[in-house]
Specification:
The protein is mainly α. Helix content is 79%, strand content 0%. The longest helix has 36 residues.
């Protein structure tokens, strides 16, 4: 049983300190977080590559794109299953690792991984699937009041579901129980968590802008290669000629590995913030 009160995150936090804590943990444990995330992201991106998803990015005609998506229904299903299994397992491991290594710095990574796969992964995988369905339904209902409704639904549900993955591990809940518990817990300090989420989104946007400079480097190289081989200006900017092959998998995996851990850390930090408030309220 995890003794929450012994964890360094079990303390009062404001919205801004939530974000600073997320990044402090991120940089402190960077190499483990990055390496495990890269492995998971590489397997996900390789699957997408083999299933032909990268071909969709080369299509510029909307009708061709829709037709190809319709024809790839089986591949999309397989890709979605692989994504949820790998991403859910990754999030499970990252949260479990960050909890255990804080309480015991000498914790064994292999033991944490085995414990995660046996005890938590399946519940978090189902939690992510159910959460996605809830968000899609909520967004669809939000469409009734147009764009504002969609944004409000996404922000509300996104805020509510943040600590769900950590709840599964710390409180040993299944996916359904974690969602109910997450609703109850977040409503104790909803506006502060919403503020933290908005700050987190801004941080992710800034990171994505910086990472975009990395992702375009191979395409810039391909652009200058096309410059000499193209017959006309149109051919130079033709996306079909910008085929960098399997390197696209490596690049996308690198970018994903940078950002994946941040979502797990946010869930962890928000949970401990809310749990501290809950215990303080009942003490």
């Amino acid at each position: 049983m995890i003794d929450l009160k012994q964890h360094s995150l079990y303390k009062p936090m404001e919205a801004d300190s939530v974000i600073s804590t997320v990044f402090n943990i991120y940089f402190k444990r960077f190499w483990v977080l990055f390496f495990t995330s890269f492995v998971a992201a590489f397997l996900i991106q390789t699957t997408f590559y083999q299933l032909g998803f990268f071909e969709l990015t080369k299509l510029t005609d909307q009708e061709e794109l829709i037709e190809m998506i319709v024809n790839m229904r089986k591949e999309i299903l397989v890709g979605s299953i692989v994504y949820f299994i790998l991403y859910g397992s990754l999030i499970s491991f990252l949260i479990n690792f960050l909890i255990k290594v804080d309480l015991n710095p000498l914790s064994n990574l292999t033991e944490i991984f085995i414990e995660t796969i046996k005890g938590y992964s399946i519940h978090i995988i189902f939690f992510l699937i159910i959460s996605m369905i809830i968000v899609v339904i909520g967004s669809s209902i939000g469409l009734l009041v147009f764009i504002v409704g969609v944004i409000a639904a996404l922000l509300y549900l996104g805020t509510i579901l943040i600590p769900g993955s950590t709840i599964i591990i710390v409180e040993n809940k299944n996916a359904i129980e974690a969602i109910g518990r997450s609703f109850k817990l977040v409503h104790k300090d909803f506006w502060s968590i919403l503020g933290a989420l908005l700050l987190f989104i801004l941080a992710i946007i800034l990171i994505s802008i910086l990472l975009s400079a990395v992702t375009v480097i191979p395409y810039i190289i391909a652009f200058f290669d096309n410059w000499h081989e193209a017959n006309n200006i149109k051919d130079i900017f033709n996306l079909k000629t910008f085929d960098i092959g399997f390197w696209s998998v490596v690049i996308n995996s690198f970018v994903s590995a940078i950002t994946y851990p941040l979502y797990a850390i946010l869930s962890l930090v928000v949970y401990f913030k809310l749990k501290y408030l809950e215990d303080k309220h009942f003490s």
